[in-house]
Design goal:
Length: about 80
Amino acid sequence: MAKTITMRVDERLYKAIKLAASAQNRTVSNYLETAARSFILEEQFVSDEEMSEIIAHPHFDRNFKNALADVKKGHFEFVR
């Protein structure tokens, strides 16, 4: 179910958002929803290139094994 939120921005930022939304033929609300969704997805997931760099790191195997050992011991916490 869609939720309505209220946010306060200064006049310059609002004008920039409105201009960007207009350039994409979107409403301000739709533009902000799309921008927020894109930002969250980019922050939550790594690209294939970045994952390749992570796996190629010389200490990856050791760090991954240590992390698995911590999980098995219950040394972790969920972050929301």
